[in-house]
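[audit] Reproducing an earlier prediction to check determinism. Same input, same settings, fresh worker. If the tokens differ from the archived copy the diff job will pick it up downstream; this log only records the rerun itself.
[audit] input (234 residues):
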Amino acid sequence: MTRPTDKYNDPGPRTFRNLLIRGGLLLVTAATVGTLAGWTKRVRATEEVAAPDVAVVSRRMGSLGEQLASARGEMDLMRVQLDRANAILDNSAKYQIPSDLAAAIYDIALSEGIDPALGFQLVKIESSFKADARSPADAIGYTQLQVATARFYQRGVTEKALYDRDLNLRVGFRFLKDLLVKFDQDKHLALLAYNRGPAKVAEILARGGDPTNGYSAAVLEGYRAPSAEAPGWH
């Protein structure tokens, strides 16, 4: 038989839960106080650190800027090199010519201010990419230069020298570049002057005539001028 006093002396489950809750609150409070104390110490420690030297920060920022600029420059260079490699491979396949010849035409055209695509078309029509090509008018090599024309750009050049690949391409492209300037970037007139001679074309134009003979159309057949965003030349 349960005594009346036992009912009140037994803590029961509710009281036990209350004790657990109170104990938990005490633990949370202690942890919070400890955390705040640690945070306060860290703040004080941070406050004791001297402010960074402005000159040092400036140098470090400048160094970072230089590294970023260098990285951008390297990326641009890689892009140009990739574009060059793709263009050489594409033109080598398109015209069925060795890659070293395609590379020479591409690089020398750029160096002389000629769109490489136009350079390839010129060499195709002039010599069919044959180094030893020679016309009845004694025009020689890849770009079919006459000695008199070549000597205007390189004094004392010989017939034998005009069979040199790079020399022939360089002088031929330089001649075409000058004709483009003379005829205000009109490719048809510049090419006609390359074929017929600038004096002849100028004379026909002065008389109100048309110097067209089909040559410029043959060179420009399938040619596409580069877009303003095309890399590598202007």
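[audit] rerun output stored. Observation attached for the diff report: Residues 1-11, 25-33, 39-47 have pLDDT under 50 and may be disordered.
[audit] end
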